[in-house]
Amino acid sequence: MHLQSTRVPLLISSLFLPVALALPSCSAEEPVEGALPSDCADGLDNDGDGAVDCADSGCSGWDICQEDTGSQPQDTSPPEDTSPPEDTGIPNIPCDSDICLNEFMADNNSTMADPDIGAYSDWLELFNNSGTDVNLAGYTITDDFDLPTRQVLPDVVLPANGFLLLWADGRDDLNAYGKAIHLSFKLDRKGEEIGLYSPDGTLLDAHEYDDQTIDLSEARVPDGDVWTICYHPSPGQPNVKCVPGSR
């Protein structure tokens, strides 16, 4: 009987040991401001540090506080340009001069070869939009509006309602070969300007163009009218085979 009585307290103490060890884990966690997004908009100091809602650093990560705290990254991109596009002053309207720029090709690969040297060079065409022959001596043509006298045309007559082909190959020898007129500049297939001036410096006709396609021209259709893409170029001839495009 004495031995049995000593075993009972040992059994009881072993049963209560895990409970005693687990007691420290039951302590409550300290409150945190921003544990939930609702903490940042309830008007309370949930963690007792003196900072309320979005003023507490614990709320800085929630979307509800982004605008209030100004914590979003600053947009350093330039402001959108809402100004209207620059007016070039060259609308696509019919030519109202006697002598007009009528067609050009800035990427001539196989359409027509220069009769003097056989090269497939850039070319442009003038059109006499009147019923009177015109001597072009002293007229100037350019690919840069800032240099209106870049090329002075020779003493050559453009017949009434006729056409004159000019080779923009940069040879600067005009009609030294006797078959064609060569200009001192080339046409940029990526786009540029063409201007035609009278001997007294008056602008007669002008055109600005953008990227060109190989062996397609831009032409006034019909002759002397508005510019369009020409799928059947006609250098030195009436523009009657062009299929109108958008330009």
Can you give keywords for this protein?
six-stranded mixed β-sheet; disordered N terminus; alpha+beta; 12 strands; 2 helices; Immunoglobulin-like; 247 residues; 2 domains
What report would you give on this structure?
Helix content is 10%, strand content 21%. It is built from 2 helices and 12 strands. A hairpin with a 6-residue loop joins strand 11 and strand 12. It has 247 residues and is of the alpha+beta class. The strands form 3 sheets. Strands 8-7-2-1-11-12 form a 6-stranded mixed sheet, with no helix packed on it. It has a 4-stranded antiparallel sheet with strand order 5-4-9-10, with no helix packed on it. The protein folds into 2 domains: 30-70, no CATH class; 99-230, Lamin Tail domain (Immunoglobulin-like, Sandwich), CATH 2.60.40.
How would you sum up this structure in a few lines?
This protein has 247 residues and is α+β, with helices and mostly antiparallel strands. Strand 9 and strand 10 form a beta hairpin.
What about the largest sheet? Answer: 6 strands, mixed
CATH class of the largest domain: Mainly Beta
Give me the Rg, rounded: 43 Å
Structural class: alpha+beta
End-to-end separation: 118 Å
Count of runs of 4 or more consecutive helical residues: 2
